[in-house]
Structures are given as structure tokens and as C-alpha cells.
Amino acid sequence: MRLGAALSVCLPLFAVSQTPVTDTTAKESLGFALQPWDSPQERIVVMDRIDLDTNYQLYVTRSSDGGATWTTPSPALATGVYESHGSLIQTGEDAYQLFYSTMSDDGMRISRATSANAANFTVEGPLELGWAEPGSIRPRAVRLPGGRIVLVYDRLLDMPAYVSWSDDDGASWDTSKVQIAPAGAQFARITWREADDRFLLTYSTGAQDGSSRLWARTTTEIDDWSDPATEISSGDGDFLSTPLALDDGDFAVLWGQSVGSDVQLFSSHSENGNDWSEARQHTFTNGSTNVAPFGLDAGEGCVDLFWTLSDSEVYYDIVQELACLDPLFGDQFE
């Protein structure tokens, strides 16, 4: 049974005590959260750890009790070079793959690492995505039931976002460089809905007035993203988002957005990925920054929500909480 399946009513986000995933004197920013197959109480979180020398390294922590307790974060790769924006997928009963941005001799590239336990990873090297020059960053991967791995990523220098895919467990990748978002797009993220074989992409763009806009785009053909994008929200903030395909059949998107001097978490729902509900605010903290949300479907219109929380400019930590996103429970957020 999933975490939320035993709950007859999901509580509003601010009414449930937050569980710290990390509590350290470091800057730790959430990258990805995963619930392993057939392990309803297990959680794995991949994060960026930024030390005071601004060195980025990927760390992993895990919980075997639904998030009540967490292991001490440990290095996922320990390569000694820049590692960030980790995206973790499971490809077999004892097989995991981690995609991440790394600094090579000639610039930024996306690399892949493999593991049997999502704790000790072996670096497999950079992906060949069809580019003659480096500059691919911020990967986000999903695995389809047939085994195909779909990867979206950004390019440096205000280039568009792109998608690639692998049908041989990550050994080789499509190199046609399919564009999925316009020039200047950032933080491309993707999910997939099994019911209608539909992909949902979210990304943000900047405006001349300094504000940002959050967009959604859908397709059922991975190499055709010609349908127009729909704006979900606009305002101040980087709109680092996560799209979700929920068990109730809806799509949902989580993101952070400025409210006064703080940054709060919001969500929106859609049945088709084009028509979006009014944004719903889920955090109401004072003097805090809430960013980089990620959700694991918990059923009953709820998600097991992870995000990065900071009460200062020095340290960031990751927290977890059960949150309701479904409009069915809307009165509880008012």
C-alpha cells in the first residue's frame, strides 16, 4: 500500500510536521527522489551538496520507514570533480542509473553512472547526444515500461531544450537533437502518463521585465513537440518545477515562486496537460525559501513531497511532508 492509501483524508501541507531529510551545516539542494519497485516504505534521495568552497558533489540518503528516519548522506560518486543535477531511475530489480551534469576537460556534459543498490555507483562516462561541442546540462530521465529511457536536458548559452532516448539500457542514445522548448528555456522536466501514452514537459523562460514564466507542453510522439505550449504561471522566481502523472489520472506540476520576500511552493492540476487549474499555494513560511520540489505519488490526491528549505543564505536542507494537490481537497488549503 502506498503512503497515502491508508489515509481517508489528506492533511493540508502546513498542518503536518515537516520531516528533515538532511540537517547539516552545508548547502544541500534536492535533485531527485525515488521509491524503489515493490518497496512502499523505501525512499532514496539524490542531492547536490555545495561546500563552502562552492564545490558541487552528488550525495545520496535513504529511508526504509517511509521517511521517518534517514541515513547520513554519503557521496554517490566521489569523483572529485563538479557533479550536479542528479536524476535517478530504476531499470531492474537490482539496477539503477544516475544521470548528472559534470565538468569535463572541455566543458559541461551529461554523464551516466550505474549501481546495483543506488548507493555505490560506477561512472560509465559522458553521453553521446549528437553534439560536437559540450554544453549539455541539467538532465532529467524517465523510464518507460518497455525499457526505453527518455532524457530531457538544457543547453548552455540560451539554447533550446532537447530530448533524447535510449532503447538499449543507456548504452547508446538518439542523436537527432529533437528540440522540445524554445531558446532561453531552463529546467526542462518531463513525466509520462501510461493511460494515454502522453508525455508532459515543463520548463521556464525569462521575460524582459525580469520575471519568469512556467510552461507546459504535451505530446504522444517523443520526436514531435509541435503542439503549442501553455503558460501555467508567471511572476518572480526561477520556477524550478516537477511535473507528475498521478494515480488518479491527472497531471500535476509543482514549483517554487516568489511571494513578497519569500519563495513558496505552488501546484496546479490538469486532465489533458493543456488546461491548468488556478495555482494553489502549499507553503506559508516567513523568512524562508522553498524551492526544488519533487513529489512521489501517494494516492488519494496526495504526494510524498520533498523540497529544499532555507532559512538563511548559508545553509540549505531538504525536508519531506505529505501534501494534498488534488482540488477535491481544496477546502483544506483555505
Describe it.
With 334 residues, the chain is an all-beta fold. The protein has one domain (13-333): Neuraminidase (6 Propeller), CATH 2.120.10. It has strands at residues 19-20, 27-34, 43-50, 56-63, 74-75, 83-92, 95-104, 107-115, 122-126, 136-143, 149-155, 161-166, 178-181, 186-193, 198-206, 212-219, 230-235, 241-245, 251-259, 262-270, 280-281, 289-299, 302-310, 317-324. The radius of gyration is 18 Å and the shape is globular. The model is unreliable at 1-16 and 329-334 (pLDDT under 50). This is Exo-alpha-sialidase. It comes from Wenzhouxiangella sediminis.
Element string (H = helix, E = strand)? EEEEEEEEEEEEEEEEEEEEEEEE
Indicate the structural class.
mainly beta
- How many domains would you count in the coordinates? 1
Q: What do the pLDDT scores average to?
A: 89
CATH architecture: 6 Propeller
Uncertain spans, ≥5 residues at pLDDT below 50? 1-16, 329-334
Q: What is the CATH T-level topology?
A: Neuraminidase
Name the beta content range.
Answer: over 45%
Helix content: under 10%
**Lateral strand order in the biggest sheet:** 1-24-23-22
Describe how the helices and strands are arranged.
Blueprint: E1 19-20, E2 27-34, E3 43-50, E4 56-63, E5 74-75, E6 83-92, E7 95-104, E8 107-115, E9 122-126, E10 136-143, E11 149-155, E12 161-166, E13 178-181, E14 186-193, E15 198-206, E16 212-219, E17 230-235, E18 241-245, E19 251-259, E20 262-270, E21 280-281, E22 289-299, E23 302-310, E24 317-324
Antiparallel strand pairs: 1-24, 2-3, 3-4, 4-5, 6-7, 7-8, 8-9, 10-11, 11-12, 12-13, 14-15, 15-16, 16-17, 18-19, 19-20, 20-21, 22-23, 23-24
InterPro entries: Sialidase_sf
Protein name: Exo-alpha-sialidase
